[in-house]
Amino acid sequence: MKIEHIQVYDYSLNISKRLNETIENLPNNWICLTDNDTLKFPNFSPNLKTILESDNVTKNDLIGSYVNRLRPSNPQVITELFDEPNIDVHFKASLDLWNDNGINVVENRLIAGSCMIFHKELWEKIGGFNESKIFFDKYFSYAVKDNGGRCLIAQGLYVFHLYRWGSDNPVGAVEHLVKA
Questions:
Q1: H/E element holding 17?
Q2: What are the backbone dihedrals phi and psi of residue 71, each rounded to the nearest 5 degrees, phi first?
Q3: Distance (Å, rounded) from C-alpha 115 to C-alpha 14?
Q4: What is the C-alpha to C-alpha distance for residues 102 and 97, in angstroms, rounded to an integer?
Q5: How far apart, in whole angstroms, are the C-alpha atoms of residue 35 and residue 116?
């Protein structure tokens, strides 16, 4: 099994368009998309492969991980780690989550763009990311569900997201995503 790991940033502020252009050129494999301010720990890739090889997910599913920083009410967030500056604590959390949860998944309303895992066939079925929307992850999640897929949190996966570090409301700090 091959997993394409991509991190894309676009200074023109049309991240969805850049993602679509990148994914269009990838082979027909699983894709792990992370923000450019997201850190995957050494156990991430082998654990992800184990999850994708399990019967818990299909090529119609959109999968995400647990994370330290998003909207605090998002079920993907481990709130105790929201402002934790010690990276060793985050690494330990990634190990503990795998040891406690392994390949288990749980459905969620959507999957955040800090870490999205999907098969290229799903992306093609949906027609790619909506290039007219800033919040590409939200609209992609809705499209997955509209096309019979599930949005799943892989309970054994964790990434560290620097996401607007220092802001108590990182979701509201979107000035850098909007053209003046």
A1: helix 15-24
A2: -65, 125
A3: 18
A4: 7
A5: 9
Write the burial class of residue 104 (CB in 10 Å: 0-12 exposed, 13-18 middle, 19+ buried).
middle
Q: Give the residue from 119, 180, 127, 179 showing the smallest Cα distance to 152.
A: 119
Query: Which residues on adjacent β-strands are paired with residue 59?
Result: none
The DSSP 8-state label assigned to residue 68 in this structure reads S
What pTM was computed for the model?
A: 0.90
What does DSSP assign to residue 51?
Answer: H
How many degrees, rounded to 5, is the angle at CA 165 between CA 158 and CA 170? Answer: 85
pLDDT tens over the chain, length 180 residues: 899 999 877 666 678 899 999 999 999 999 999 988 899 999 999 999 999 999 999 999 999 999 987 777 788 888 898 889 999 999 999 999 999 999 999 999 999 989 999 999 999 999 999 998 778 899 999 999 999 999 999 999 999 988 766 666 666 666 655 555
User: CA-CA distance, 124 to 118, in Å (whole number)?
Assistant: 11
Q: Name which of 111, 73, 115, 108 is nearest 94 in CA terms.
A: 115
Query: How far is Cα 115 from Cα 33, in angstroms, rounded to an integer?
Result: 6
Residues with Cβ within 8 Å of residue 96, at least 6 apart in sequence: none
